[in-house]
Amino acid sequence: MFANRKTENIEKEVMDALQSARRQQPYLNAVVSFLDVEDAIEAAKSSSGKLAGLPIVLKDNVLTKGIRTTGSVAILDNYIGAYDATITTKLKEAGVVIIAKSALDGLGMGGTGTNSHTGLVHNPYDLNRMAGGSSSGSAALVASGAVSFAIGSDTGDSVRKPASFVGIVGVKPTYGRISRYGIIPYASSLDHVGYFTRSVEDAALALEVLAGRDDKDMTSSFREVESYLSNLNGDLSGKTIGILGNVIDSIKNKETLEIFDHLIEKCVTAGAKVKVITMDHKLLQTCLPVYYIIANSEATANHSNLDGVRFGMQEWGDSLEELMTNSRTKGFNFLLQKRFVIGSYSLADENQDLLLRKAQKVRRLLVEEFKNTLAEVDVLVAPASSDVAPLLTDKSADQLSARYLIAENYMVLGNFSGYPSMTIPMGKINGLPIGINITAKPFEEQVMFDVALGMEHLTGCKNMVAEVIV
Amino acid sequence: MERISKNIVLSLAKGLMLRLSDEEAENIVAEFDTLLKQLDLLDQIDTTDVQEMIYPFEEPTDFFREDIVDHVLPIEDVLYNAPLEEEGYFVIPKVVKD
Q1: Buried (b) or exposed (e) across A220-234, using 16+ Cβ within 10 A?
Q2: What are B41-59's pLDDT values in tens digits?
Q3: Among A138, A283, B91, B95, which lies 20 to 30 A Cα-Cα from A153?
Q4: In 3-state terms, what secondary structure has residue A315?
């Protein structure tokens, strides 16, 4: 835990973290680049920031001036950050020491940790299982104990799903709460900066450091940043917790439901009121196709500048068109190419009404329904995944089943709506962790953290570490 | 919606400046088949008179700043990543052939 910490020896703490990440690298494959830390250690020694001397990891889609930032794709494999992201600056001002840049599903597009340019990322609880994605490396390094804080990003559930699979806290705050300036984009209307910690208190402190208005990101909010840590109150009495009934109905795994039900019973004993709320089932089933159309369309447009001309990997050709085609064909893996084709199809003039605009209209209906659902309660909760982390070889998901369409993809509602949403661990099944997702109303991160803290007290799932034995 | 043909996939890829093999194009056609079934779910939703939602919130977060030069990256920082650069310009294949 780093909230309220007193650091005795910054150098030792940082070098221990670096050594731990390096030792685990052959097993987790979570790191793209290890950083030189000497200068940052010296700077941290004289820092009075809230996180002075804390070793941390950044997802490799966060720009760092003078340091390689690849987005885990071949086309950016040699890209050196030309400037710092706003959060990089904020974190440095808070005194952190960045020890590594972590692997992601290329450009944030994927949810498994199997689509990184540097290979598969492994789950520290079981190396044969997925860490989840797209913030795979950051999640794995917090779960393995290498660091206690790592940055991720969340466009669909890319922080909250891996947090469930590796037993840690994963936060996606309100859209606009954290600046996205200097983050390699995926889908601008859905992208959020998120992060991982191993306790709710740490998560509250981390948001104080990261949040705030940034004129370089015109979607960032002017709203004041609260003192989330000092205001934290885990008392659940009087809180109204809504359970998203559709998700529960679509989960077939008994153990997941038992752990969830047990926690909810404890919440009631602790004084919370509980309501099961059901959204329009037909509407909720559209989450995935709506996400697919919007996210892929925006990604196709955002990544058209990756052409091998001005930066990144270049494959020469006899004409400009051939140079770009050579560079993009070699620079993007097949999964990304496939998503760009789907995005391009939705953007074609003849399909825009039928696909993109239709998806954007259904997005509004989903958000209105979600807003009404939350109006009656303080937070809305459901298991963050239907089961524990899948095996790396598992490709069996029936993509038309209710389990897949709802239980595995409902968290994208947090991105459609921009509402704050987080995952905390709620227990283990056969030694593998599984999380609960908590969503609150816009800019009510404090309420979300309060309920999360109350639940953390009840589960005892705090500071869980699965250090890889090597 | 109608099944997407391999030719459409190849044509979209060309527009994206991507070169796909026949096998890859067929794989994408198969992916579209699943996607189109999911899109049927979308068609079942009545969106008459519904406005598109582009961004999550309507609370204004933008403003007109003063017309003063601000936040300029040094040219050497920008060109540092250029695969080929000459006298401050990016180099590309000759456009007007001899």
Answers
A1: bbebebbebbeebeb
A2: 999 999 999 999 999 999 9
A3: A283
A4: coil
| Contact indicator for A150, A140 with CB cutoff of 8 Å | no
> What is the H or E stretch that residue A123 is in?
strand A122-123
Summarised one tens digit per residue, pLDDT across range B19-31 is: 999 999 999 999 8
Which of A418, A458, A416, A413 shows the shortest CA–CA distance to A437?
A413
Number of neighbouring beta carbons within 10 Å of residue A39? 10
The Cβ of residue A430 has, within 10 Å, a number of other Cβ atoms equal to: 7
Q: What is the ipTM of this complex?
A: 0.95
| Sequence-separated (6 or more) residues with CB below 8 Å from residue A165 | A123, A129, A130, A131, A132, A139, A385, A388, A389, A433, A435
Cβ–Cβ < 8 Å for A145, A20: yes
Q: In whole angstroms, what is the distance from residue A412 CA to residue A172 CA?
A: 11
Report how many Cβ contacts below 8 Å link chain A to chain B: 166
Single out the catalytic residue among A158, A221, A297, A421.
Answer: A158
pTM of model > 0.95: yes
- What are the residue boundaries of the structural domains of chain B, listed by start? 6-43
The C-alpha atoms of residue A296 and residue A341 are separated, in whole angstroms, by 8
Phi, psi for residue A65 in degrees, rounded to 5: -60, 130
CB-CB under 8 Å, A329 with B24: no
Kindly list the distances between the CA atom of residue A329 and the CA atoms of A73, A257, A340, B31, in Å, as whole numbers in the listed order: 12, 44, 12, 19
What percentage of chain A has pLDDT greater than the value 70? 99
Alpha-helical regions (H) of A186-333: 200-210, 245-250, 254-269, 281-284, 287-302, 320-331
**Mean pLDDT confidence for A367-386:** 97
What the block records as the tokens of A58 is 């950044």
Average pLDDT over residues A217-230: 97
Q: Are the beta carbons of B41 and A289 separated by less than 8 Å?
A: yes
Question: Which among B16, B39, B73 has the least Cβ separation from residue A83?
Answer: B73
Query: Does residue A59 carry a catalytic annotation?
Result: yes
Cα A409 from Cα A390, distance rounded (Å): 15
